[in-house]
Amino acid sequence: MADGATGAGPVGEVVGFDHLVLRCDNVETTLAWYLGVLGLAPVRVDEWRAGEAPFPSIRVDEGTIIDLVGGGGFVPEGPGRLDHLCLVLAPGTDLDAIAARDDLDVLEGPVGRFGARGDGTSVYLRDPDGLTVEVRTYA
């Protein structure tokens, strides 16, 4: 694993911010706060409550959501409750090539995942500070 600073260049053109994941002590309490206090719109909440989605989300804008995930005793390696962030890459970016790069700390991928714009394909990377960064494309 290299530090990425002297690698083969950018993984692709970042065209937007997709989502972040918050680890919550109580998902229902956190959900109620973001809906009630900030007035954000729910995403897949009914599906989550019915056991059909792994977690609920809240919509920040047309292309950005916040996923609310139960902590289950999880303690983040870094400060705070941020699990990871996700950036959208330009259509056609070669995720297989990103996953094969020796200069990156690749954790997983390419794998199919749901995001702010629906189903996409993602590669998970670790940044120099240990934060997980998901890069994703949509078809």
**CATH fold call:** 2,3-Dihydroxybiphenyl 1,2-Dioxygenase, domain 1
CATH H-level name... which superfamily? Answer: 2,3-Dihydroxybiphenyl 1,2-Dioxygenase, domain 1
Annotation, overall tally of beta strands: 8
Secondary structural class: mainly beta
Instruction: Please tell me how large the radius of gyration is.
Output: 16 Å
List the uncertain runs.
none
The number of distinct helices, counting runs of at least 4 residues, comes to: 3
| Tally of discrete structural domains | 1
Q: In order across it, which strands form the biggest sheet?
A: 2-3-4-1-5-8-7-6
Q: What coarse outline follows from CA principal-axis ratios? A: globular
Distance between the termini: 29 Å
Mean pLDDT: 88
Biggest pleated sheet: 8 strands, mixed
Beta fraction of the residues? 35-45%
| Helix and strand run | EHEHEEEHEEE
The amount of helix comes to 10-25%
Characterise this structure.
Helices cover 14% and strands 43% of the residues. With 139 residues, it is mainly beta. It has a single domain, classed as Roll (2,3-Dihydroxybiphenyl 1,2-Dioxygenase, domain 1). The protein has an 8-stranded mixed β-sheet. The longest helix is centred in the N-terminal third of the chain and has 10 residues, at 27-36. The two termini are 29 Å apart. The model has no long low-confidence stretch (mean pLDDT 88).
In short:
The protein contains 3 helices and 8 strands. With 139 residues, it is mainly β. The two termini are 29 Å apart.
Provide the descriptors you would attach to this structure in a database record:
139 residues; mainly beta; 2,3-Dihydroxybiphenyl 1,2-Dioxygenase, domain 1; 8-stranded mixed sheet; 8 strands; 14% helix; 43% strand
